[in-house]
Specification:
By secondary structure, this protein is α/β, with parallel strands linked by helices. The protein has one domain: Rossmann fold, CATH 3.40.50.150. It has 7 helices and 11 strands. Helix 2 links the parallel strand 4 and strand 5. The N and C termini lie far apart (about 40 Å).
Length: about 220
């Protein structure tokens, strides 16, 4: 499948898959999407409702590492301790990683080494990125996740249901439900009706929220 780096609406780049007409992040702004969906509606919401400074995060679709890197920056800024697990079946290539401009666009040039470390560490074992951030990248399919009662927050960032509907089923969200702790939160950029129904059927309380630039709505789910 042809892959190419493209610039998005906010100046940050993403990877475009021509055959699917799909990309890893929103064409309207990769960084804007990540900050709105996963930080503002996800991390900030969880912190506002939990009197804790330590949390475990699961990302469904590690991809370019953008969401993990922004979470890393937030951990440092807010003095949090984040134990982060990113699941990815098909890691991006070294050549693609070199073309990502996230450290520059986030004014985080001092953290270039940390971003590179996130991509260079071996898969399937935990690694300390900083005193605030531990990362484990797991190379496997989402349906292979078998964790129980482990995560406080889930960033669900799989390719869209239009191209990979099998990643947005009740079966997958039941795995998320089992992997999450009570009062844990799942956020996703998707607001598709079939996705919302699958999340609700899996046992979550689901709410529609304003979406990132270029998208009217998104979803947030709570495990009671």
């Amino acid at each position: 499948m042809e892959r190419k780096i493209i610039k998005t609406g906010d100046g940050s780049v993403t990877i475009h898959l021509s055959e699917w007409d799909e990309q890893y992040h929103s064409k309207h702004g990769a960084i804007q999407e990540a900050q709105h969906v996963f930080i503002k509606m996800g991390l900030e919401n969880w912190l506002a409702n939990n009197n804790q400074k330590e949390l475990t995060v699961l990302e469904i679709g590690f991809g370019t590492g953008l969401n993990a890197f922004i979470a890393f920056l937030e951990a440092k800024k807010l003095q949090l301790k984040i134990d982060y697990t990113g699941v990815e079946a098909y890691p991006v290539s070294e050549d693609e990683i070199k073309e990502l401009n996230y450290t520059k666009m986030l004014s985080a040039e001092k953290e270039v080494d940390s971003f590179q470390k996130m991509h260079s560490i071996p898969w399937n074992s935990p690694h300390i990125i900083s005193e605030n951030f531990q990362l484990e990248k797991q190379q496997k399919r989402f349906e292979e996740i078998e964790d129980l009662n482990k995560y406080d927050l889930v960033f669900f960032d799989a390719f869209g249901a239009r191209v990979q509907p099998e990643l947005w089923t009740e079966e997958i969200f039941l795995k998320m439900f089992s992997a999450m702790k009570k009062k844990a939160v799942l956020v996703t950029y998707s607001a598709k009706g079939s996705v919302r129904r699958a999340i609700q059927t899996a046992g979550f309380i689901v709410e529609r929220l304003p979406g990132p630039p270029g998208k009217r709505e998104m979803l947030r789910a709570l495990k009671k």
